[in-house]
Design goal:
GO molecular function: eukaryotic initiation factor eIF2 binding; GDP-dissociation inhibitor activity; GTP binding; translation initiation factor activity
Structural class: mainly alpha
Protein name: Translation initiation factor 5
Family: Belongs to the eIF-2-beta/eIF-5 family.
Largest sheet: 3 strands, antiparallel
CATH topology of the largest domain: Serine Threonine Protein Phosphatase 5, Tetratricopeptide repeat
Helix content: 40-55%
Number of domains: 3
Order of helices and strands: HEEHEEEHHHHHHHHHHHH
Pfam family, one: eIF-5_eIF-2B
Distance between the termini: 18 Å
Strand content: 5-15%
Strand order of the largest sheet: 3-4-5
Number of helices: 14
Shape: globular
Organism: Strigomonas culicis
CATH architecture of the largest domain: Alpha Horseshoe
Length: 327
């Protein structure tokens, strides 16, 4: 909030009633979004690999306390711009709370460790009759990736490992793979995020997700065909919105499973991943809100309630300030 205050040249206030920071004055959404990206670029993303898995390193130097950004993915140690006005507040805060200035958990040498792979469980579909048959068929549809004889995630990972592809080629490859296997639309993003997990390591997983953001944006939502002179009806639009909500629900659940497998007890990683997916316009706010309020996840993903609480705080922060405070 200090960054917003200095970059916008505006006063700020704290609303203790609803636990919100308020930036006074009138500011358009585009400007606020740009300033948010500026903050993330300066104080979150690694300057070398653009990965958000960074932490503050605080150590004693000849001229006093030195602050640097330590990247948990590539191990890069970067200096902050000490002439930035925000850095003054930044320094004061961490000098008062040194316990919060920690080195990133995954240093560069962690790349030497092999990621533990867990094969997807196979589901046996047993022919039954009547209502029970319909129920089993529904389960089979949800398990398309697991029941496929040739795992499309591994096939896609092998294609990506060759390196000879661009956004369009990768998108076409995944769509063709999905059509050949007769899968539903909600499986398309699962193929790519699963392939990234196969292809990457846990140290550069975030970096690879961000590198493939263009393709992920294309497959986490579907749009009605545009015909010149025709207006899309509310009913058709509602159907597409329903489909997109389903696609993103499956996608976020898969992301939760991957983070649980990769990062175990570190719930910050999933919260960070979902926030990054939002900033990259891969998932929308409504889908994140649905993820936060989904109580069924507690039985499927360990410690997901902690993640939901953290993401809820981000959603609260994203809500517009009260009208009277923006005058």
């Amino acid at each position: 909030m200090k960054f917003f205050q200095t970059s916008l040249g505006a006063a700020r206030n704290v609303s203790e009633k609803d636990d919100k920071f308020l930036i006074m004055g009138t500011h358009d959404e585009e400007r606020l979004t740009q300033e948010l990206y500026n903050f993330i670029t300066k104080y979150v993303l690694c300057p070398k690999c653009r990965n958000p898995e960074t932490a503050v390193k605080m150590e004693q130097a000849k001229k006093g306390v030195k602050f640097t950004m330590q990247c948990g993915a590539c191990g890069q140690e970067s200096n902050f711009d000490e002439h930035d006005r925000t850095f003054t507040f930044f320094r004061q805060y961490y000098e008062k709370h040194p316990e919060e200035a920690t080195v990133a958990k995954h240093a560069a040498q962690a790349k030497k460790e092999d990621a533990v792979e867990q094969p997807a469980a196979e589901v046996e579909v047993v022919p039954v009759e009547g209502a029970a048959k319909k129920k089993r068929e529904k389960v089979a549809k949800k398990s398309d990736l697991e029941t496929s004889k040739t795992d499309p995630r591994k096939v896609t990972a092998a294609f990506m490992a060759k390196g000879d592809y661009n956004t369009e080629k990768l998108h076409s490859f995944i769509i063709d793979l999905k059509n050949e296997a007769g899968m539903n639309d909600e499986n398309i993003p699962l193929i790519l995020i699963g392939a990234i997990k196969e292809y990457a390591t846990k140290e550069n997983f975030f970096q690879e997700v961000r590198r493939h953001a263009d393709v992920l944006r294309m497959i986490t939502s579907v749009r009605p065909p545009q015909v010149a002179g025709e207006v899309i009806g509310d009913r058709v639009r509602a159907e597409y919105e329903k489909t997109n909500a389903k696609i993103q629900r499956y996608f976020l659940f898969e992301c939760a499973k991957i983070c649980q497998d990769y990062y175990k007890e570190d719930t910050d990683k999933l919260a960070l991943l979902i926030f990054m997916l939002y900033l990259e316009d891969i998932v929308n706010e409504a889908s994140i809100a649905a993820f936060v309020t989904n109580k069924k996840l507690a039985d499927k993903v360990e410690r997901v309630v902690e993640v939901q609480t953290k993401i809820q705080k981000i959603l609260n922060w994203m809500q517009p300030a009260p009208t009277q405070a923006a005058q």
